[in-house]
Automatic annotation (TrEMBL):
This is Ribosomal protein/NADH dehydrogenase domain-containing protein. One of its GO terms (cellular component) is ribosome. Residues 40-155 form the Ribosomal protein/NADH dehydrogenase domain. It is found in: Mitochondrion. It holds the Pfam family L51_S25_CI-B8. Keywords: Mitochondrion, Ribonucleoprotein, Ribosomal protein. SMART domains: L51_S25_CI-B8 (SM00916). Its main location: mitochondrion. Coiled coil: none annotated. InterPro entries: Ribosomal_mL43/mS25/NADH_DH, Ribosomal_mS25/mL61, Thioredoxin-like_sf. Residues 107-129 are annotated as: Disordered.
Length: 213
């Protein structure tokens, strides 16, 4: 039998991906998403970094067919920008774009991929594409997500009734765990305080004994 604690931990991680920030279905007009920001969080790149870590994985979970490239650089003074590429409305959404055809003809090693050395900055839109950008520098990750949802027209994924029950159960368990931690902390603190008082009493007793010898 699976350990209940391990099961709940895995369930919590799964629900965080399925229904955490960024859990949304993108419209079929979106062909790809590109993020450019610096390696470290300082100098205005914290929001972009948090969006990448907390939101982009959820977007990818619900939209596995859409390429999402993260291009980072060691230059902290560089912009933090997200580029969202749309297929032009005049084209049939089921028709492969010129970009998809072009990329499919490249060897795998030459195809754009995420980079930590500014290897693949956001390209210009291909034929049949338009690009919408979001300035992420010095912007909170929640605000980046709100602007992303507005500009893409993405649809939030609602949890199923069963998932809502599981989420309530997890919330109750987390609340109980917080109470248990507080009780345990008080017990440990009281025990340490008692040990300090006993040690001090022993020191005072030893000092009195030495003084009377």
């Amino acid at each position: 039998m699976v350990n209940p604690g391990k099961r709940m931990h895995k369930l919590q991680a799964l629900l965080a991906i399925r229904h955490g920030p960024g859990s949304a279905i993108l419209p079929p007009e979106i062909t790809r998403i590109h993020m450019d920001f610096a390696m470290k969080w300082n100098d205005g790149h914290l929001g972009a970094r948090k969006f990448w870590k907390n939101c982009l994985r959820n977007l990818k979970y619900w939209n596995p067919a859409i390429p999402m490239i993260v291009n980072r650089t060691t230059d902290q003074s560089s912009p933090a920008k997200m580029s969202i590429y749309f297929r032009q409305a005049a084209l049939d959404s089921n028709t492969p774009s010129a970009l998809a055809t072009k990329l499919s003809q490249l060897p795998l090693a030459q195809q754009p991929h995420s980079s930590t050395s500014n290897e693949h900055p956001a390209p210009e839109p291909e034929e049949g594409e338009r690009v919408v950008t979001i300035d992420m520098k010095n912007v909170h990750s929640d605000d980046i997500l709100n602007e992303f949802m507005s500009k893409t027209g993405a649809t939030l994924v609602e949890p199923t009734p069963d998932e809502k029950v599981e989420m309530r159960q997890l919330e109750e368990l987390n609340e109980k765990a917080a109470v248990d931690r507080a009780i345990m902390k008080k017990y440990i603190d009281d025990k340490k305080r008692e040990e300090r008082m006993l040690a001090l009493a022993r020191q005072e007793a030893d000092a009195i004994k030495m003084a009377n010898d």
